Amino acid sequence: MFLVAPILFLCLAWAIHWIWGRIGDGVPRRVTIFFLALVFLYEGDALLTDRHEIPAGLAFKAYPWRATGHEPVEANTGIVFTQLVPWTTSARSQILDGELPLWNRTAGAGTPLAHNQQTAIFHPFTLAGLLLPVGDAWTLTASLRLFWLLFFVFVLLRRWSVSAPAATFGAVAYAFCTFNVVWLLFPLGLAAMMLPSALAATEELILHRTPATFLTLTFMLSLLGLAGHPEVALMAAIVASLYALYRVGRHWTRRSGSDLFCFALAGVAAMMLTSPVWLPTLTLLPETPRYAAFEGLRERSLQDRISADWLLPLVAPNVLGTVPSATYRAPVPSDGSILSDYGEVASGYAGAGTLAFALVSIVFSRRPCRLFLILLMAGAFLTLYEAPGWHWILMKIPLVGIALHQRVRFLWAAGVALLAALALDDYLKGRLSAAQLRWGLIVATSMVAGILFFRLKEFMIRNVLLEQVGWFGMSLLSLTLLIAMAGRLKPMAFVRAAVIVTFIEIVVLTWGYNPAGTPIYPRTPSVMRMKQHEGPSRIAAMEWSFIPDTPGYYGLEDLKTTDPIQLTPYMKVFRHALDIAPDSYDQIIGSLDHPLVDFLNVRYVYKPPGEPLEVEGFRLVYRGADGDVYENRHVQERYQLRSSFIIQPDFAATLSALDRIDTRSVAVIDHIPEKILSQAGHAGAQLDPGTELSLKPGGSARLKEYRSNSSAIEIDAPDWSLLVTSDSDWPGWRAHWNGERIPTVRVNGAFVGVLVPPGKGTLNLRYRPKSFDRALNVSGLAVVLLTIGLPAWQISRVIRRR
Q1: Residue 493 region, left (φ>0) first, then alpha (ψ -120 to 50), else beta?
Q2: What is the pLDDT of residue 319?
Q3: How far apart are CA 332 and CA 348, in angstroms?
Q4: Cβ-count burial of 72 within 10 angstroms (0-12 exposed, 13-18 middle, 19+ buried)?
Q5: Is the pTM of this model over 0.90?
């Protein structure tokens, strides 16, 4: 079965080669075959075995997986296992069931799924593996990403009149740079990898303005929006726009204005086509803690947060240590608003020789595109350094101001790799001498050796001297080999040797960052015991076990979530009810005594082996080497009626009230909608905060249908009743009573509720944001305009030729 992924990869890669050959200047077969060979060489452990490109090593440190006896593996890709695969599994299953993946029931009492962006579920590379097992699908998408990057960096450089060997060097150096290796499995990396294809398509449109090239550019820009990481997609889109301005403005002609108009039109079309993906995300951002935190940063000084430690990895990637060897230390000083793990800090390196050739290009080359690449590197460096004036400007730009700016390291690496390709091409064509190349190589050698020398004392103190000498030695060895070969080999042979030396150097320096693994998520007996219950129910894991979001892979619904798109009120209620420390990333539960635990529909509590759970109301239903499972005998159903409720719009007062009331019989709601007051004969009534209302008891609610994005509840009530749920109240919930739309209310500070009229009927609750429907209309309009406009354009071109 594992051979399906490599066969499908070969077919899709060759399809990319064939299609591009009919749009622009084709890539020679031997080059495509070479790129395929590199991907198979790098991904062979996953492509050609029953292993998968999902580093599951982290799992085997935690229960229940720890009981399987598998050795944990250090990797910088923990959230691939803990977040991305479970969320993507949920999205895949919904699509295969014929549903849109809008809502994720398996995390955080429900969270937006497609619009948290992280699954990139609508990107072609994700959809390509939809019918494969999730492990094979992940291997397929990783292989496609590398091939796509190699292919289109080569295409772009060839459009700049760079010879094939030099273009191959640029493609290899950038595709396997530390950024793309470390972020290979992430939506962040996928978004960055779409930039070269957007630039290549921009070149095609400028050189051959036809409906086909316009549609190609629209498609490539759309891939940015579908890649699953809005902030990096935004950065890449800005770079593509600046490149179009630079490319057209450099030689302004009467046609230049229309070229820019076509680029802008393609950008607008791409935005319209992908709006169902990004527009709902944009509307969700103000609800999230991260948005509030970054908005607050605009008002405070951000000086003195960046030191040389943050910038040295651009020259020496492992100067701060590595994750596989467990020697990485974050740079100092640090700030809570700047992520400081290896992937964020050490991911801008494309090889020591690549840096040397880029220096040569900056000093000696006179190629037209050189200035744009220098400006690209300068902009990236100023952003990484947080240069005062430059950083102030960035913070004032909408959306850019709340982005994690250290992630522009991919632009630095791109600039270095492409400039290096220009230098090697000039060397092949006799514009640069071997002495000039050696000058760059010697300067780079001095920089690397200097960093090693001035850090020796620190390495000795940290007991990592031997390891660091090894890492630096690899860079120095590659530089020494290149210095020895420059002028002694013919230029063509030298460039080919540089490709091999640089590839080996980068792969060695980043070895172990994407370790293939199997099994992915073992199904232990404790997991299967919790899956036995039919109908909606949730689990809660004690201590450091069942890492947040991972239960979603099994279809278990977890209270916890580390989703960056979080509903702030829910997280506060959840942490309050389970006594979870505000700074606990893994959300370690402190207590199960609060009555809200029953309200939250917690049926099972998982506990690692050890001391028994001593909490009233929970009985042991499974005990084994993989942990204990307890069942909550007082669990409340997901959907229930309440005849008594308190009106309290203030969240803090609501949280306080929840400590005093019996949530089994009383609820707190934020307001009574005017439409409900009018239907109940109390139009215009003024109800003070804290008012408690009691209705006629005796109603019943029965769950009729439970789907990924919706629920249907049959209700029979003698009077107006409040239906309470423990589904988090994200904007986007819709309620219909017997087919008629009725408003929702917020229950217990964070959950969806509906005031239902008396009588029998069916209440349908459905998550479908208005912004998604609006975006679908916008996308449909774009399809119509393209369907009409492109044929009309083609016809007008034919007429003009005649």
Answers
A1: alpha
A2: 92
A3: 18
A4: middle
A5: yes
